[in-house]
Amino acid sequence: MDMNKKEEYNSAIINTIEITKTYRLGEREEVRALKGVSLKIQRGEFVAIMGPSGSGKSTLMNILGCLDTPTSGKYFLENIDVSKLNDNQLAEIRNKKVGFVFQTFNLLPRLDAFHNVGLPLIYSREGSKNDKKERILSSLEAVGLKGLEKHRPNELSGGERQRVAIARALVNDPSIILADEPTGNLDSRSGEEIMAIFQKLNRQGRTILLVTHELEIAKHTQKIIYLRDGIIHNFEKIKNPIDAEQKLKEMPRLENKMIENKIKQAKSV
Ligand SMILES: Nc1ncnc2c1ncn2[C@@H]1O[C@H](COP(=O)(O)OP(=O)(O)O)[C@@H](O)[C@H]1O
Ligand SMILES: [Mg+2]
Hints:
By secondary structure, this protein is of the alpha/beta class. It is built from 9 helices and 10 strands. The chain starts with a helix and ends with a helix. It binds adenosine-5'-diphosphate (ADP) and magnesium ion.
């Protein structure tokens, strides 16, 4: 093998070759959710997947996250062919290599932030109890939730809940973070704060793949992959990604401006 080719191969965390997914609904009906997707994600990349509802985004994320397997095609996760693994092997790889963040946070309501973040460590045999505690606390600190360990989800704002979910995704030190519409349930400021955290994690070397249907959110990443009807129909490099920290600084001004305008309007009637 050509050395350059080999290095390229090795540096891709995610490498899919013509993967398809067909859901069968009874005897005669089937849905072809993915129709041959070939995709490479390199270590350290921050990539967005965009596409209209039903285009196959979640199906792709589930396969990339080892929650499901493709109907055909190959999928290499850090050079391991995961398209052929059984459920147990898949679960093990998933637990080690993938951190998930969902639109609906998926936290357990009866557990406080500390124990929600600790969930992926329950079955892990690696590390002592103290080790695990340290990892949970440093994950919470990484998302700016130090001091809120004892709060349950219903005592936290939406943005804070999503940050707990991100801390949970980080706690196993995964190779890749997969986020499916992570800002979909948040107001614009909280969404921007979540993007600031992703950008910070990416600068620290984390590989992040994010699904969104908002272009404004996708523009915070380095590359947008456009999915439609189960195929990739376009790539776009983002030359100057929106800086979430910067945008957050401008947001209060924006809010003040809106209030000023309201006052002006009220005065003019
Ligand atoms: N478990 C399933 N069983 C049957 N059809 C499904 C299933 N999951 C998704 N689909 C179908 O596959 C297509 C792609 O869905 P999905 O991946 O959820 O798209 P997106 O996340 O882009 O909205 C849609 O037509 C959807 O109805
Ligand atoms: Mg979806």
